[in-house]
Amino acid sequence: MPSWNIHISHAERLFENGALDAFGVRDTNAFLFGNVVPDIYVGYVVPNVTHKIPYKDTHFADPKYVPVPDAAAFYNLYVRGKDPSDLVLGAWMHLLCDHYYNLRTNEYIARIGVKPGEQTRIRKQADFNTFGKTLPISRMPGATSELVDACAKFAQYAIEEPDVHETIGVFRRIVEENQQSLGSSEPKYELLNADFFARTYAEVDNVLNESLRLHAKGLDPTTCGRP
């Protein structure tokens, strides 16, 4: 899955592009936090959580080496025909992001003849982490009472208040580490390459913007982009 600095960067791009104002996102703090929500209870990025939820349930995907989350399934269950919270919209953005990065990774390794497996997953994740550290990010969510309330009412499962605070701590650490290390060295990739990340980043940026636009117009965003 993309590292959190990648998710945060894409969320910040939505702020910059004006999509949030144009598409009716009111609580930008909850939306920003929502962009990392599906990873909270997996137990890796945020290790000190009150409980864990299986990856297949948080991401709508089989937990294989490079899983491709079914963002459309999440949309159909928690967004379509409803008045979704901004936290829910952020979580949908996370799953869309995961879907396309992992899908393009699987296509890439198949094209160059690399077999899926644990070592490939490790190399892929290392490259995602390396690329993520090249991105200038600065936004951090605040632990407001509104966010805590939105998390308790998250449509898929309740997010407990201690886990909200723990997640914000991890979020802030990642942003601060990015700011400190940005530009300190040239990225060196193990499996993927700079062209892969440039193309995929641009594609995901477009998909997230277009999906929000279609949703705001009452059109079907699950047809946006390629499979």
Question: Can you put this structure into words, describing what you see?
Answer:
The chain is an all-alpha fold and 227 residues long. It has one domain (4-223). It is 59% helix and 0% strand. The protein has helices at 4-16, 19-22, 28-34, 37-40, 55-59, 71-78, 86-112, 118-132, 145-152, 161-181, 194-216. α1 (4-16) packs across α8, α3 runs parallel beside α7 (86-112) and α7 runs antiparallel to α11. The protein is globular and about 45 Å long. The model has no long low-confidence stretch (mean pLDDT 93).
List the helices and strands and how they pair.
Layout: H1 4-16, H2 19-22, H3 28-34, H4 37-40, H5 55-59, H6 71-78, H7 86-112, H8 118-132, H9 145-152, H10 161-181, H11 194-216
Helix pairs in contact: 1-8, 3-7, 6-7, 7-11
Number of domains: 1
- Strand proportion, as a percent range, falls in under 5%
Could you say which structural class the secondary elements and strand pairing correspond to?
Answer: mainly alpha
Gross geometry: globular
Mean pLDDT: 93
- The counted number of beta strands is 0
Q: H/E series, N to C?
A: HHHHHHHHHHH
Short description:
By secondary structure, this protein is an all-alpha fold. Helices cover 59% and strands 0% of the residues. Helix 6 (71-78) runs antiparallel to helix 7 (86-112) and helix 7 (86-112) runs antiparallel to helix 11.
Keywords:
single chain, 227 residues, 11 helices
